[in-house]
TrEMBL record:
The gene is Usp16_1. It comes from Catharus fuscescens (Veery). PROSITE patterns: USP_2, USP_3. This is UBP16 hydrolase. GO terms for biological process: protein deubiquitination. One of its GO terms (molecular function) is cysteine-type deubiquitinase activity.
């Protein structure tokens, strides 16, 4: 979808992302890097239809003449529709020559995360004037082992039904104002073994998948 928004606001976010100063090896740093502003130049220049028509004439002559105009551009990936359920998938591998190597270091993640610095200023399902888009952690998938073999386990929070989340799913809106994580007991699940654990144990895990539900 090609968007022709006002260039002055096209790269604006709900909250000032420059005030984040995210800590390395954190989920905030991952999101900051994923949504960073990129400059497209040289071989990455953007094919511009307007520039092509300006320099080469009407569209029906473009293909026959095989003349195209490319221009420098800016690119940024931002969230335009905040989901009821936020799933974050961490890429836990890196290239080591011709081989893939698993990344085992711990990535910090919070109980409550604010997506506002990563949402477009015109995010479709955020009420006007809101500068926070909050999510509460309710599930983590962890992988132990190597790229060739290993074992998946999960941390899941048992909590009361989130009526505000139902409003988001059914109607795309809510009047929720919570800023604290949804209360509940965490459990570690490994095959048929289930045991209660503390939230500190959950937050120290090597997350592979993170599941958040929307608060605000």
């Amino acid at each position: 979808e090609v968007s022709r928004d006002d260039p002055e606001t096209a790269f604006c976010t709900l909250a000032n992302r420059e005030e984040l100063n995210p800590e390395e090896d954190s989920i905030h740093h991952c999101l900051y890097q994923f949504t960073r502003n990129e400059t497209l130049t040289e071989t990455n220049k953007l094919l511009c239809d307007v520039c092509t028509q300006r320099h080469c004439g009407p569209k029906n002559n473009i293909k026959s003449e095989k003349k195209y105009a490319y221009t420098n551009a800016k690119k940024q990936m931002l969230i335009s529709l905040a989901p009821p359920i936020l799933t974050l998938h961490l890429k836990r591998f890196q290239h080591a020559g011709f081989n893939l190597q698993k990344v085992n270091r711990h990535i910090k993640f919070p109980e409550v995360i604010d997506l506002a610095p990563f949402c477009t200023a015109k995010c479709k399902n955020v009420a006007e004037g809101n500068t926070k888009v909050l999510y509460s952690l309710y599930g983590v998938v962890e992988h132990s082992g190597t790229m060739r073999s290993g074992h998946y386990t999960a941390y899941v929070k048992m909590r009361a039904m989130n009526n505000h989340l139902s409003d988001f799913v059914l109607r795309g809106q809510s009047q929720a104002s919570e800023t604290e994580p949804i209360k509940g007991q965490w459990f570690h699940i490994s095959d048929t073994h289930v045991q209660p654990v503390s939230v500190s144990k959950v937050l120290s895990s090597q997350a592979y998948l993170l599941f958040y539900e929307r608060l605000l």
